[in-house]
Amino acid sequence: MLWFRKTLLFFFLTVCIPMLTISSIYLFTFSQELQSRYSSSLSMETDRLTDQLDALMKPIERLSWQLTFSSSLDNLLLRTDKANMYDYLKLQTAMRDQASIGGFIQSLYVYFGVSGKVITTDEGLYALQDFFDRSIIQQNQPSGSYQIRNLAFDNFGNRTKEESSVITFQQELPLAGQVKLGRMIINIDLNRFEKALRSVNKSDSGSYFLIDTNTGRVFLKEGDFSGEHGDWHLTNWKRYHKMSDFVTLNGERHFTAYRSINDSWLLVKTLPDLSYRSEFAAKRKSLMLTDLILLLIGFGFAFLFSFIVYSPWRRIFKQYGSHFMPSSPSRIYDESALFGEGVRRLLTENSRIYTTMEQMSPLLRRKLVYDLLNGYAGSDSSIPQMLKTHGIEFPEERYMIGVASYEPGDLKPNEEPESLNLLLFSIIETAFAGLYYTIGTWVEDGRYAFILNVGTETDEKDLNGRLRAECQRINIMLEEQMGITVRFAFSRLLDKVSGISQSYTATRRLLNYRALYYKAEVLFDSEVEASRKHPVFPVSLQHLLVRHVLKGDRSGAEETLELFFTQYIDNGKFPPAKMQETMMVLMGALMNELLKEGYDLEDMEDLPFLFWQDCSDRQELKNFLHARIGRLIDRMNPQEPPKSGNDYVVRTIAIIEQRYMDNLTIADLAGELGLTPNYISRLFKQETGVPPLDYLTRYRINKAKELMLFSKHLTLKEISQQVGYPDVHSFIRFFKKYESVTPGTFRKLEMKP
User: For the HTH araC/xylS-type domain, which residue ranges apply (predicted)?
Assistant: First the structure.
């Protein structure tokens, strides 16, 4: 009977424990999914409300841009001493017409810093000391900022009994100039703005309010909120910078979403958790009822199975038990001994499964790191547990993301990419692991990502220096052994694992500007973003470059480009995005100036200046621009083949153009003409300015370029043989010497649409 009770308890627990475990996991998962669903819904509504706010503010910013670029305003800013009342009247009319387009603009001012005058849309022209709203100008707020304030006067400067709330937008003038000569102030009626926002916001779930992040003032709200709530939410957002949160305030729990608007406002949208609790309680009640029914059914089945299992063994032991028992047993035997062999087999199988899982553990860890970097790892709260489950435990509290990549074109012809990727990944991870706890993954061909766990006592500047030295050591070793240079980029320091995905995205973005850096240069997001200074467009360099191109002065144009690199790129003072934009504008301005000079650029469409982003590093970018400027000069100043009155020189040129595909030498040319090699070399250079072999090489390169452009099915080897180079490596070397790029790069750039 003891065995029966044990069996009954075993079967009952076999049913009960998994069922309760599954129910608990299901209830927990349901709770997480329900919270995620409510949070996602709230975030979507918040994003929609943010888009609506942006849509309402876009016309204001467009209005400021339209007025800023008007010729009348530019003339008044630059030539204030020569302006008359008619000029100001034209500007006021334009301001009034533009302001009337928006539905909620209350007033608009323009302040002229040189003359100290202010013009308004409704009243007229004031001296600054007499202007009724001069305080807003004297505050000198940042350009592009929004400010919430109260006005105690109307558009005509008359004091009112009640203050009106407005949103004030400021813009320094002019936008493109280095010296700011004035300021534009646009006042937006807060009540009309709020009505416009409510008219486009049709959502009836939750509440929202807007906070001025500078003053902490709640100036727009939908629902019952106090200043205490606004202060709490503003403090919470500034401390943690979370996009969403689940907070408890005054005993009430809310789903909360935060969005920053123009770095001036904080949008807070909340949703009480009453619906969540009601839905969760209903699910829990139904699950408990289901569990109770299943427990009763499980107990019945456990009793039945126990009886079925126990009966045969009871009869066996009753009949044959004496044959298996020792004559003087030292311990008590029961039917459970019959299951010993089965249990031992299960243990053996379990050991095999465990061994297999241990072998797969590194792959699973790499996959988890890949998901964590790309934002596929689930909710932020579950990430620490997932890391611990896979055996990843970070000993320190700060993190840094590192990305390493190399150009596939650096591979040797007989090198297998897969083997090289595994080798490089192992070398880099081992090197980083010698400094900090490191776990990495292979994100794609030629690119790897690593999570470095650093201590709190490490200064970020010292950390960057240590990592830079280690990366340089790795590159020296790889260059010596494999001829490969690896690019490295690192993120800012992180205090939470949840920010890894965003930091990886920002770090990977640094490598998109590879054309502005040297291959071996180690990039740090904290150092690149530290320079927020905007470059002033190089107008003087633009004019100088245009002048050299028009004159056909190749060396002068190259010196101008070198000067541009020295002043704008080599010093690293400006953000890469701004330098990329400046370079595009410079090349576009060059082509535009050539159009103004009357040059037909339709024949120059195969000069793809905008494809410089495909360059692998700064040196290749320099070579690319030098080559493009050189070809542009050649197109604008075409040169005829050298003509000479000397019959020997003319015959030499004819022989070269007829037999350039042969392995011609000076001796061959001299033999054809019946002269000595020294005499024909000296005579040819005296008449044409270049030695005969240089002329032959240039002619072969030009023929090769024609074949690459018009016979795209030919390989480089076939082209090299057709133009007189039996060895493709010699062809590549001479082509790069004369064109500053390899034949493969030339063909790739020319074939782009």
Answer: 650-749
On whether the CB atoms of residues 401 and 498 are closer than 8 A, the answer is no
Ramachandran category for residue 638: left, alpha or beta (phi over 0 → left; psi -120 to 50 → alpha): beta
220 closest CA partner among 212, 232, 210: 210
For the chain, the average pLDDT equals 78
Helix axes 576-596, 539-551, angle to 10 degrees: 40
Q: For residues 171 and 69, is the Cβ–Cβ distance under 8 A?
A: no
- The rounded Cα 192 to chain-centroid distance in angstroms is 38
CA distance 233 to 249: 10
Q: Quote the Cα angle for 331-333-338, to 5°.
A: 140
pLDDT digits (tens, 9 = 90+) for 143-174: 878 888 888 777 666 777 777 888 888 888 87
Cβ contact 141:148 at 8 Å: no
Position 242 scores a pLDDT of 62
Rounded (5°) CA angle 77-80-86:
100
CA atoms within 13 A on the CB side of 109: 28
Residue 175 CA to its chain's centroid (Å): 27
Residue ranges with strand state E in 365-455: 398-405, 437-444, 447-454
Q: By the 8 A CB rule, do 187 and 148 touch?
A: no
- Segments in 69-147 forming alpha helices (H): 71-78, 85-99, 134-138
Q: What is the DSSP letter of 445?
A: T
Residues 274-299 have pLDDT tens digits of 778 888 888 888 888 988 887 778 77
pTM of the predicted protein model: 0.41
Residue 490 pLDDT: 92
